[in-house]
Design brief:
Layout lengths: L6 H6 L11 H8 L12 H5 L8 H36 L9 H18 L3 E9 L1 H8 L1 H18 L5 E6 L2 E7 L3 H17 L2 E3 L2 E3 L2 E8 L6 H20 L1
Antiparallel strand pairs: 1-3, 1-6, 2-3, 4-5
Helix pairs in contact: 6-7
Length: 246
């Protein structure tokens, strides 16, 4: 697996807008309107190319007001685009967990699959199920299960690379897109992370809980959709679990 990828590669693949590690304070600042920079006095003559003869004062004042109004409208349009992008990024994030939601993750995986087919780089989709969260919800309540999922998500963010896109699917299921990872390296990484998650106890109101972790992998293939690849990873997980039960 490639452990370090430069920023140019990240931008080329569109990863910088898919769920980078941006703190809430950073996002809050991005959402706030920015105060327009104080601009120098407009030279109307140079703007409208009236350099050969001086303009009457009233005409120059009217043109200056027009230029300032255009600048104000341009700033409002820029601000509107900025806020629209911010809302789009917020819609991609899960409301509680620091990862992408299912829709955003599938969209990101689809983009990776297209880039993989065009550039011929390897990758895998990981389907990861955390067993025991459902029982925790029944016995300890929704707050406990939500805190457990946050616990798992934070551990996953530390375990995977920044370029490995993590998504929450539903219930206690997560998915990870392992880009630029050879199949053997992806399986080794998935196995190590699953074992690590199973060993990390979750503490809730003084009690410790351990979870079982199952996973399945499906390698990037030309012409395969994101949904189909995720389904193949889930099928691999279920087949692996069936083998353990026998």
């Amino acid at each position: 697996m490639v452990d370090r990828i430069d920023e140019r590669t990240i931008e080329a693949l569109g990863w910088s807008s898919l769920g980078g590690r941006q703190g809430s304070e950073f996002l809050r600042r991005r959402a706030l309107p920015r105060t327009p920079e104080k601009r120098p006095v407009v030279d109307v003559s140079s703007v409208f190319d009236f350099s050969e003869a001086p303009l009457p004062l009233a005409v120059e004042q009217s043109l200056a007001a027009l230029v300032e109004e255009v600048e104000r409208l341009r700033h409002e349009v820029d601000l509107s685009h900025h806020y629209e992008n911010f809302l789009g990024e917020e819609a991609d994030r899960h409301s509680i967990l620091p990862v992408l939601n299912r829709r955003a993750w599938l969209r990101a995986l689809g983009q990776l699959l297209v880039a993989s087919e065009q550039s011929d780089f390897p990758g895998s989709a990981l389907y990861l199920h955390v067993g025991g969260v459902e029982r925790l919800r029944v016995t300890q309540g929704l707050g406990a299960s939500d805190a457990a999922l946050v616990h798992v998500a934070e551990l996953m963010r530390k375990a995977f690379r920044q370029t490995d896109l993590i998504g929450y699917l539903d219930g206690s299921d997560f998915a990870v897109a392992l880009a630029l990872a050879e199949p053997d390296a992806a399986r080794e990484k998935a196995r190590a992370v699953a074992e690590s998650l199973a060993k990390e106890s979750f503490i809730w109101r003084g009690s410790r809980f351990l979870f079982t972790v199952g996973f399945g992998l499906a390698d990037f293939q030309p012409g395969v959709s994101a949904e189909d690849l995720l389904g193949a990873a889930d099928a691999s997980r279920r087949a692996s679990r069936a083998c353990h039960l026998k």
